[in-house]
Amino acid sequence: MAETELELRSAEEADLPTIVALLVDDPLGARREDASEELASDYRTAFQAIAAADDNQDLLVADIEGYVVEVLQLSFILHLTYKGGWRAQIEGVRVAEEVRSRGVGQALFDEAIARAKRKGCHLVQLTTDRRRLEALKFYLRLGFKATHDGLKLHLSLTSQAP
């Protein structure tokens, strides 16, 4: 892929419908997300809180000629461990099927990791659903190590979570 085609940037509110469509275009996300024409106001509220109001949150997108083809959320978290160190958390990674295996994912992760280094983070962490075998292989190729077990507790009784 020619570098001139690919732009890595923070998401803009106009990108939100495409971002939500990426979240829906996924076997797991299809059960819990809704990309109907009139986006739920919760998506816009979350976008404002993440992208506009919090310097420790960012939605990064890969854009090819004006079309968003990948998204990830990058969060910076300050901890008491590591002598009060920063770490970066990557979540909500989705790549449009038509650009998989073309270097777009690698490029966006390189950008996220570079931002984590500039913030002074001592590590970058992420979780992935065990059913996402291809994603896990991709993360391992990027140098991530499966050093910890992650656990989640869903708090909503109406949750669509598996």
Label this structure with key terms.
globular, five-stranded mixed beta sheet, single chain, 25% strand, alpha+beta, 31% helix, Aminopeptidase, 162 residues
Structure description:
By secondary structure, this protein is an alpha+beta fold. The chain has a single domain, classed as Aminopeptidase (3-Layer(aba) Sandwich). The chain contains five helices and five strands. It has helices at residues 16-24, 41-52, 81-84, 104-119, 133-141; strands at 6-10, 57-64, 67-78, 86-95, 121-126. The protein has a five-stranded mixed sheet, with helices on both faces. A hairpin with a 2-residue loop joins β2 (57-64) and β3 (67-78). The longest helix has 16 residues, at 104-119. It is globular. It starts with 5 loop residues before the first strand and ends in a 21-residue tail after the last helix. The model has no long low-confidence stretch (mean pLDDT 88).
Q: How many helical elements? A: 5
CATH architect. name: 3-Layer(aba) Sandwich
**How are the strands of the largest sheet arranged?**
1-2-3-4-5
Amino-to-carboxy terminus distance:
36 Å
Please bin the fraction of helical residues. 25-40%
Helix and strand element order: EHHEEHEHEH
Structural class: alpha+beta
Kindly report the CATH topology: Aminopeptidase
Number of strands: 5
Average residue-wise pLDDT:
88
Shape: globular
The major β-sheet equals: 5 strands, mixed
Please identify the top-level CATH class. Alpha Beta
Uncertain segments are none
User: What number of structural domains do the residues give?
Assistant: 1
Tell me the CATH superfamily.
Gcn5-related N-acetyltransferase (GNAT)
* Rg calc: 16 Å
Q: Give the percentage of residues in beta strands.
A: 25-35%
